[in-house]
Design a protein that fits this description.
By secondary structure, this protein is mainly alpha-helical. It has helices at 10-16, 20-49, 54-59, 65-69, 74-79, 85-89, 91-111, 119-146, 153-172, 174-182, 184-204, 225-251, 255-263, 268-278, 285-302, 312-332, 334-346, 349-352, 357-364, 368-397, 399-413, 415-421, 427-454, 461-480, 483-495, 516-522, 526-569.
Length: 570
C-alpha cells in the first residue's frame, strides 16, 4: 500500500470483513490447510495404527516436499492457460478448481486403500495430494493478491490465516474422532467430501484482475525439434536434480537422496548412516544448507542460454524464471531489491529459533495435557486475535508502517519467556506468556504476508510470491538447528561462572522441582539451566535486531523511492 493510499477507519475495517471476497478467502484458507494437515500430520496416526515402522512413517514427510519447492513450477501457474477451465473461471480460479478436484480424488483414493497391504500406493497418492495442495496454494496466493487492491491486503491475509487455522482443527481432530468411531477409511472419505466446500468457494469467488506479459522467446529463432527434445531433457534433469537437492535440504529429509544413491550401489547400512547425519537437528544443517544453495544453483543453470547459440528452450526458461526476478529488481533496483530479500529472510528469525519450546515447557514441569490445552488450543485463539490486529494495523497505518511494527513484535515478545522461566510450572504464567507471544506472532505473520504481497507485480504474482515465501525459511533453519546447543552451552558456561552466570540470580527462588529433570540431563544445576534458557531467549531477541535495522533501512528507502516516482509522475 503506498503511503498516500486510502486508510480505513476502524468501522470501515470491521465492515470490510463482510465482503464476499473475505468469506471466500476464509474458505480457501481452509481448503489450503486440509490437504497439508491430512498428509503431513493426521495420516501418520493411520499409518502407526496399521503397525508401520516409524521409519516408514517419517518417509511420508516427503509428501509435503512440494510445499518447499512450489516456486519451481509457479511460472506454469502464472502463464499456462488450462483448456476449457480458463474460459469459464479465469487464470487463478481454473488452477484452484483443477487442483481441488485432484485433491478430492486423491483423498478419496486414500480412503479406499489399506496402508498395511499397499503402502507404496498410499505413498504415491499422498505425494499427489501434496503436489496438488502446493499448486493450489500458488494459485490461492495469487488470487488473494490480485482480486483486491492494497487497501484490503491485510483483511484478505487475515481471512486466509483464520481459514488455515480452522483447517488445523478440522483436519487434525475430526478425522481422529471419525476414525475412532467408524474407521480410517470412512474418516478420509469424509475429508475428501469436505473439499466440495473448496470447489464451491472457487466457483463463487470473483474473477481476479490479471495481466499476463507476453512471451516472446521464439522471436528470430529457428525451431529445431529434434535438438530441442535433447536440450529440454538435459535442462529438465538439471531442474529435477536441483529441486530434489533443494527440497531435501529444506525438508531435512534424506529419503530421495538415499533412493538415488541406492541405484548406484549404496548399502542399507550406508543409507542409514547418511540419513542420521543428514537429518540430525544440530549438525544436519551443515549438509542441508549447501544442498539448498547447490540445488538453487542447478535451477539457475538450467535457465542459462547455451554459449554462442541461443535456443528456444533456453530463451523460454530464461523468461519464465528470469522475467519475474527481472521485474522485481527493475522496480526496486539492485541494492534495495537485495535489502528487501534479506529482510524477508530475517523477518521471522526470532520465531524460527524457538524450536525447543515443548522441551522448555516440559523442563519447567508442565504436563503434556497442560501444554496441549494452553499452547495448542488457547494459543490458536490468541494467534487469531493477533492476526486480526495485524490486519487492522494494515488498514490504519499502511503496509510499510505495519511491516516496521511487525518486525518488533517477535523479538520483543520473546522476552516474556525469560520471565516464564523464573515462574516454574505456573499455569496462569503460561497463559500470560502464550497470550503475549501468539498475539505478537499473529501481528508479525500478517505484516510479513501483506508486505510480501505488496512486492509482487501483476502477471508474475504466483512466481514472485512463491519465491518470497520459500526464502524466509532458509536462514531460519540454520539458526534453529543450533538452539539446543546454545541453551546447554550457556547453562554449562553459567555453571562454570562464565558471562551467562549473570542470569543465575534470577532463578534463586525457582519452585521446587522446576528445571530439575532437564538440568540432570544437561549435567548442570537447575539454576544454571535457567540461566541457559534466559541467555537463549536474550539471544533470540538480539538476532531479531538485524531484521529491525533492515526494516528501517528498507522502509526509509522504499518510501523515498515511491514518493520520488509519484512526484515524477505528477
Amino acid at each position: 500500500m503506498s503511503e498516500d493510499a486510502k486508510r480505513l477507519t476502524t468501522w470501515e475495517f470491521v465492515k470490510s470483513l463482510r465482503d464476499r471476497r473475505v468469506a471466500v478467502m476464509l474458505l480457501l484458507g481452509l481448503a489450503a490447510g486440509l490437504p497439508y494437515f491430512l498428509i503431513f500430520d493426521t495420516l501418520s496416526a493411520w499409518l502407526r495404527e496399521s503397525e508401520l515402522s516409524l521409519t516408514s512413517i517419517s518417509a511420508f514427510a516427503l509428501a509435503t516436499l512440494s510445499y518447499s519447492l512450489k516456486f519451481v513450477w509457479a511460472p506454469l501457474v502464472d502463464r499456462l492457460k488450462l483448456p476449457g477451465l480458463h474460459g469459464l473461471l479465469g487464470q487463478r480460479r481454473s488452477w484452484m478448481f483443477l487442483m481441488q478436484g485432484l485433491i478430492m480424488l486423491g483423498l478419496w483414493a486414500i480412503s479406499a486403500s489399506d496402508p498395511g497391504a499397499n503402502l507404496g500406493m498410499v505413498a504415491l497418492l499422498a505425494v499427489l495430494v501434496g503436489f496438488c495442495g502446493a499448486t493450489q496454494d500458488i494459485a490461492i496466493d495469487a488470487w488473494r493478491i490480485e482480486v483486491v487492491d492494497e487497501t484490503f491486503y491485510g483483511t484478505m491475509a487475515a481471512a486466509y490465516q483464520w481459514g488455515f487455522r480452522l483447517a488445523m482443527i478440522v483436519a487434525g481432530a475430526l478425522p481422529l474422532v471419525l476414525a475412532d468411531a467408524y474407521g480410517w477409511n470412512l474418516s478420509y472419505a469424509v475429508m475428501a467430501a469436505c473439499m466440495v466446500i473448496a470447489l464451491g468457494a472457487t466457483v463463487l469467488a470473483p474473477r481476479e484482475g490479471y495481466n499476463r506479459p507476453p512471451m516472446r522467446f521464439a522471436e528470430g529463432m529457428v525451431a529445431r525439434p529434434a535438438l530441442e527434445v535433447i536440450e529440454w531433457t538435459g535442462r529438465g534433469l538439471l531442474i529435477l536434480g536441483g529441486a530434489l537437492l533443494a527440497g531435501s535440504g529444506l525438508s531435512s529429509n534424506a529419503t530421495f537422496l538415499n533412493l538415488l544413491a541406492g541405484v548406484f550401489g549404496q548399502s542399507a547400512a550406508q543409507a542409514e548412516a547418511f540419513k542420521a547425519i543428514w537429518e540430525s537437528r544440530e549438525t544436519g544443517i551443515f549438509l542441508q544448507f549447501p544442498a539448498v544453495v547447490t540445488g538453487l544453483g542447478l535451477l539457475a543453470l538450467a535457465c542459462v542460454p547455451l554459449p554462442g547459440a541461443p535456443t528456444r528452450p533456453g530463451a523460454y526458461l530464461r523468461q519464465a524464471y528470469g522475467a519475474p526476478l527481472g521485474d522485481f529488481f527493475g522496480r526496486f533496483g539492485g541494492q534495495l531489491g537485495l535489502l528487501i530479500l534479506a529482510l524477508i529472510c530475517l523477518y521471522r528469525l526470532s520465531d524460527f529459533v524457538l524450536n525447543i519450546m515443548n522441551p522448555f515447557y516440559q523442563d519447567l514441569g508442565f504436563t503434556l495435557t497442560q501444554i496441549a490445552e494452553v499452547r495448542k488450543v488457547y494459543g490458536v485463539v490468541a494467534s487469531m486475535a493477533g492476526i486480526a490486529a495485524g490486519a487492522w494495523l494494515v488498514s490504519r497505518l499502511g503496509i510499510i508502517r505495519t511491516m516496521v511494527v511487525g518486525v518488533f513484535a517477535s523479538p520483543v515478545s520473546n522476552l516474556v519467556f525469560i520471565w516464564l522461566a523464573t515462574q516454574g510450572a505456573s499455569v496462569p504464567a503460561l497463559y500470560a506468556a502464550i497470550t503475549i507471544d501468539n498475539f505478537a506472532t499473529g501481528i508479525a505473520g500478517t505484516a510479513l504476508i501483506v508486505y510480501m504481497s505488496s512486492l509482487t507485480a501483476s502477471g508474475f504474482t504466483a512466481t514472485q510470491y512463491a519465491l518470497f515465501s520459500s526464502l524466509y525459511a532458509i536462514i531460519g533453519k540454520i539458526f534453529a538447528s543450533q538452539s539446543g546447543r546454545i541453551i546447554e552451552g550457556s547453562a554449562r558456561l553459567a555453571e562454570d561462572g562464565g558471562f551467562t552466570a549473570v542470569f543465575r540470580p534470577m532463578f534463586a527462588g525457582l519452585p521446587e522441582g522446576s528445571l530439575a529433570k532437564g538440568a540432570e540431563i544437561a549435567g548442570v544445576t537447575p539454576v544454571s539451566l535457567g540461566a541457559g534458557y534466559a541467555a537463549f531467549f536474550t539471544y533470540s531477541v538480539v538476532i531479531g535486531t538485524a531484521a529491525v535495522v533492515l526494516a528501517f533501512m528498507v522502509a526509509r528507502r522504499q518510501t523515498a523511492e515511491t514518493q520520488a516516482r509519484a512526484d515524477a509522475a505528477g
